[in-house]
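Z., the sequence and structure:
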Amino acid sequence: MNKTILYAEHERLKANIVPFGGFLMPLFYSSIATEHDAVRQNVGIFDVSHMGEILIKGPESLAFVNQLVTNLIPTGPTLKATYALMCNEFGHVIDDLFVYPLEADTYLLVVNAANVDKDEAFIRQAAAPFIVTIENASSEYGQIALQGPNAFKMMMALFGASIDDLKFMQYCYKTYDGHQILVSRSGYTGEDGFELYAEPNAILKLWRHFVDGSGVTPCGLGCRDTLRFEGALSLYGHEIDDTISPLEAGLKFAVNFNKEFTGKEVLLKEFNEGVKRKLVGLDIIGRGIARADYEVYADGAKIGKVTTGYLLPHHQTPLALALIDRKYCELGTMVQVSIRNQLIEARVRDTKFMDKKYKR
């Protein structure tokens, strides 16, 4: 099992450590609810060094990356990250990722930890017609995420007021203790925040600066999941996977039909004809919490499944995301979720469980 550069820090802080994506990672330090609240009300820090980093270089790198992913990667120098998906020929999601144009003819793809090997193999196969080189640089990067309404104050104290000029999904370069840091105003919590990429030893120094020097709350995978769920942000293996299309998952914003990409024809047909199933929110009316893969029923038949479900801190009603037949997707429709072999009433709702706090 792999360990990030921060593993000894997690042990020092007495984290509850679990396997995740091939790594030993902190599930929580104090409690999931306490860490969830720290991010919503103040600021928390996450170790995300388990994420994969793949570099695409060469004179045809932009053309290749645009063929590879669903969203449009802009031409020319830009300090803007793009959220996109890689799809197979059936229009189903291989992975979701962020694309950073680092310099002319060099693109950084940040992919999910559990998918690195699969993604690399798919990328290398797709690259055959293009003049590019592909490098799995995951071991060369560490990554932390500083998230919450006070994240920008912590970042400004370290890097100066110019850091607040960044808008959501923009990035810049800063220097810390002689190390170059890629600072991206982005995150996976629905809050304002920053993701920092650098060589692993620099990430270790930054972690200690924020946790020991500034009192930032360390946060684990547990609240990372409750936070991203509250923000209705998709997680691979739940809301998206290689049997689900981006359109079914409500990710049309990351699909640009004005260019070519793998799976485009299938997705365009699905867009024109309408999806057969759709990701919706559920209010659980009866007793019980709807967990991932619990079956959803209506009119005596199975109509889909729950992808994620929680009773979130400060919410009175359990919530869920579910992928169900579009016939039942109208807001207010009553359905049932099978919880411990009992059909529990639920109501279809939107997926806006909170207002996102991104700096636009």
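The chain has three domains: 7-49+141-230, 52-136, 276-360. The first strand starts at residue 16 and ends at 20.

Let me know what you think.
H.
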